[in-house]
Amino acid sequence: ADGTFYTGITNDMDKRLAAHNAGTAAKYTRSRAPVALVFVESCVDRSCASRREMEIKRLPRAAKLELVAHGRTP
Predict the structure, then answer these.
(1) Would you tell me which of 19, 36, 49, 69 could form a disulfide with 43, CB atoms 3.0–4.6 Å apart?
(2) pLDDT given for residue 12 in this prediction
(3) Is residue 25 domain-resident?
(4) For residues 47 and 50, what is the distance between their CA atoms, to the nearest angstrom?
(5) Using CA atoms, how far apart are residues 72 and 43, in angstroms rounded to an integer?
(6) Cβ distance 40 to 67 under 8 Å?
(7) Can you give the pTM of this predicted structure?
């Protein structure tokens, strides 16, 4: 846990979080364990989720902090 944010999509949140903490998910999180879930957002389908993932990844850190704190971006 180094204070960075990882953004991804999944259809099984518990399994994905466990995989990240076990070091078997995204390469980015392997050296940053343990990871903690700080924000969740649901989408109607994978296409919507992928678009939203890219939107969040493009946000500056301050906007991500706002999203985590208040569930919205400035």
Answers:
(1) 49
(2) 93
(3) yes
(4) 5
(5) 15
(6) no
(7) 0.83
